[in-house]
Amino acid sequence: MNNFPHVRLRRLRQNETIRSLVRETHLRVDQLIYPMFIAEGVQEPQEIASMPGIMQWPLDQVTGEARRIADLGIPAILLFGIPNEKDAVGSQAYAEHGVIQEAIRRLKAEIPELLIITDVCLCEYTDHGHCGVIHNGTVQNDESLNLLAQMALSHVEAGADIVAPSDMMDGRVGVLRHTLDEHGFNQTPIMAYSVKYASGFYGPFREAAGSAPQFGDRRAYQMDPANVREALRELEQDINEGADMVMVKPALSYLDVIRQVRDHCDLPVVAYNVSGEYSMVKAAAQNGWIDEQRIVMELLTSIRRAGADMIITYFAPDVAHWLRS
Ligand code: PBG
Known about the structure:
CATH topology of the domain at 26-247: TIM Barrel
Bound molecules: ligand PBG
Structural class: alpha/beta
Keywords: Heme biosynthesis, Lyase, Magnesium, Metal-binding, Porphyrin biosynthesis, Zinc
Binding site for 5-aminolevulinate 2: 275, 314
Family: Belongs to the ALAD family.
CATH architecture of the domain at 26-247: Alpha-Beta Barrel
Protein name: Delta-aminolevulinic acid dehydratase
Binding site for Mg(2+): 234
Strand content: 15-25%
């Protein structure tokens, strides 16, 4: 049935005032989380070659940068640590005076209102670069759980507000919840990387975090990009184990997954706009091939439209500036 010329959809598009009145999806600064890399071994901020504008920060300068982020109205940062010493069991991941534990203490002392979320995963801390301990060439699930729980606990004891397990071991959310509760931290939320795919889009991050696996790949624990029913099983499992928020990662090639996760549960949904997604936009923008601001706003709006409540993005400070002007 064709109602034209009676019905004309362009009526509601004729100027920005009307368009903004009927706009369905909004991107706000208080929905953004900014990832930060803190490196024990650096004296000055080191720019990551494949991620223009993103630095590895020395401990001494973390609070200065975080202050800038908080002043932009960004409510939360997600911390990744790069230790000097790596070993087979990732000891620095749960060391009382590890790089992240120290960073958390400084941040909480100086900027208590900024939410500190910590990535809980061993890959930046193991010499083999895998997310758990290895025996006979394979990543051991159950033996890794205890180390991950110790890691999460050490972050929370240092003052972290939220822990975000990204290792993709089975059962980790439950073990983290149990460990935190046992130690009096039943109010600390778990933001679970519930649906994390084995993705080529993490390439630049692995340069940033020095966490590329030294043999093999992560396909035996991260998910197959072809699967979405399995994503819903991961989701269900994490909810049953006590996750407070659930994440889909990466974001842009997985908008359909974000939508399904949104429709299947009532938990807050987080999407991680990952390093490779950032680098591709930056590279095209630096070549003058695209309008960076316009493309970034369109991409992040599409992630929100797909159903994400929050977005972890390296673009957060830029977006905060753009939303102000
Ligand atoms: C740690 C972790 C990774 C990312 C976040 N946490 C890398 C990986 O799983 O290999 C990727 C983030 C990004 O690409 O921006 N396991």
